[in-house]
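Closing statement on the pyridoxal-5'-phosphate sub-project.
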Amino acid sequence: MELNYLECIACGSREDIQTNSYQCSKCGDLLEVKYDIESLKEIVDPKRWTGSLRVWRYKEMMPLKDGSKIITMNEGGTNLVDCDNLQSMFKISSLRVKNEGENPTGSFKDRGMTVGVSRAVEQGAKVVICASTGNTASSAAAYAARAGMRCVVIVPSRAIALGKLAQATIHGAEVVQVKGNFDQSLKMVLDFANRHKEIYLLNSLNPFRLEGQRSLAFEVCEQSNFEVPDRIIVPVGNAGNISAIWKGFSEFKELGIINELPKMTGIQAENASPIADAVKRGDDKILNVERPETVASAIRIGAPASWRKALRAIRMSGGTAEKVSDNEILEAQRLLARKEGIFTEPAGASSVAGLKKLLEQGVVDSDERVVCVCTGHGLKDPDIVMQFVKLEAEMEPEMESMERALGIASVVTR
Ligand SMILES: *Cc1c(COP(=O)(O)O)cnc(C)c1O
Ligand SMILES: [Zn+2]
């Protein structure tokens, strides 16, 4: 029995772990890494995990060859922040935020990229490519730079947040804009990578990237002393992350490391909510959104690649999905910043916006222990914030002027 192999998520047929295709050769659906749990049990021992939390703490659970050259910046190990202020404001017994903006390039994408780019090295790739709403590009560019590879990123025209574009370009990626949206960009890179087998595809269709993203679940277990939270709330765009996190928890349970599983709860933006809509309809298929639109550019996706896995995760875990408006997202972004000191980009704040809504609807109970994932750093998208900023009045460089400007009366001395 092989320790790991690839399995089609739709028809279940198996492929060798060394294949360089991204889709099932029988039905064309996505491939997923699977482990022989009995063999894995023999090599995984939480007591032997040492040092700080990070993706490569779980090395034996990552599907690379022994002795592979690993391209890493110690990604992962982000704080699980106690949010006491929001907790009392929302009247919920426990609210913690997994603050993914702390990763090397400022988003959870680094957890997957370290595995994806290391796999690209293993496969002998010289060029990597991805389509991106921004953060995949930032992350791919940085890891490809460390690996000494050429990196091409395909982005929808004029739709990428400023910070993300700056990151991709400073790391030396070739950024090509498509006159179209993310869904069209993704289709183009997939067709391209299938035609040019020497070019390595770094989208979340790539099963290796998602294996790295499972580490978020592993860390939450460890940071909770293996007392699994009741619910994990995750922003959902292409739906790779929620699927990867669920896969991580499920495998920990199969290995006997944890006893419970959290309710996976996905949050999408209104007008980009095919998965939340399917959950509300009770449907096991999604209807793509032709023209997705939201302020949260990282989840502005109408045809999520991993929809099937996401629906499965939500259903199997007894979770749910909800959609939130741009106003609700921006309000949650401000709340996180002003009550907890956490600055996350709009997509990252959608999890907290969703929690607020689900509490109001009574879908989430006030006695639940909830973890919200805040997926990316707020500095990536400064334009969104500055749109609403009013700076205080200017003052003369003198005390009286300052006291007037700040509305603090002068102390009369004589
Ligand atoms: C990529 C990304 C998402 C969406 O993740 P999916 O795996 O595509 O569902 C959400 N928030 C941020 C900040 C992202 O970069
Ligand atoms: Zn198949």
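The chain has a mean pLDDT of 95. With this model delivered, the sub-project is considered complete and its resources will be redirected to Aim 3.
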